Amino acid sequence: MHYNLHYEVTKEVSRIVTLSLLRLYENHKDDERIFPNNELKEIEDKQED
Prior knowledge:
By secondary structure, this protein is mostly helical. It has one domain (11-48). The chain contains two helices and no strands. The chain is extended, with a radius of gyration of 13 Å. The model has no long low-confidence stretch (mean pLDDT 82).
């Protein structure tokens, strides 16, 4: 599922949303129901190289 949403927000709101999404990802990155086939894990591994 993919959503492409665009809103005008302040930098503070953007920062809060970004941090919240990163925290959610960190807590659930190994959950196959959310990230099937660990596609994001593969992306992370490439970035570390």
